[in-house]
Amino acid sequence: MNITIDGKPCVCEPGEYLLDVARRNRIVIPTLCHHDGLPGQGCCRVCIVEVEIRGRRNIVTSCVYPVERECAVFTDSDAVNQQRRVVLALLRSRAPEADRINRLCKLYKVPEYERFASKSGEKCILCGLCVKACQSLGTGAIAAMNRGVEKEVSTPYDKPSDDCVGCGSCAAVCPTGAIEVKEDAASRAIWNREFRLRICERCGQPAGTMEELELAARKSGAEPSALCGECRKKAVADAMAATYGV
Known about the structure:
By secondary structure, the chain is α+β, with helices and mostly antiparallel strands.
């Protein structure tokens, strides 16, 4: 299927998401809540674009918009820029301490809307990526709590959760750095709980928390690894080399 994005001819498969087509063709569309490993969020609306089909134009969210017919896409039109500035202003109002949002506001020349004046010191934009990452691991230690302006992501009752394994996946996918992780050579603290780290026997770097490694072992049916991710890859490569004489 042939489409154009900002006048550039692009080939795509039916049902392919617009954001993926644009990225493959090196066309920049800003995102916040999108993550390649956890697709389908579509909640921050920063990646909006304008799609024209048979002379009619509509604003759509590119990360969840499947291309189903030939169309012309505009990522930088007046309508897109106007709506994107409002979206970014709202996100800035919600999370004024988030550096990434402030950089996007500067890049897209977002004015200071008086009606969107910030009344908080948050970094979280409630995109849900952290919750989705936690659920994908099968732990479900965090979730969205409360409603309206009191809504937040946390463990139940803000207490240390027995379900949390301290893997830090939630913090790794957070687009605004809202989840605090403190780590030293022996321990990691996250979500009001401290975890002991296991040190890699090969390189001496942290391999993960004991709970994280035990969870991975239960899922794989193997013993908890004494190696970090990089050293496990090297160990597999060494074993393959020894077996096949590579």
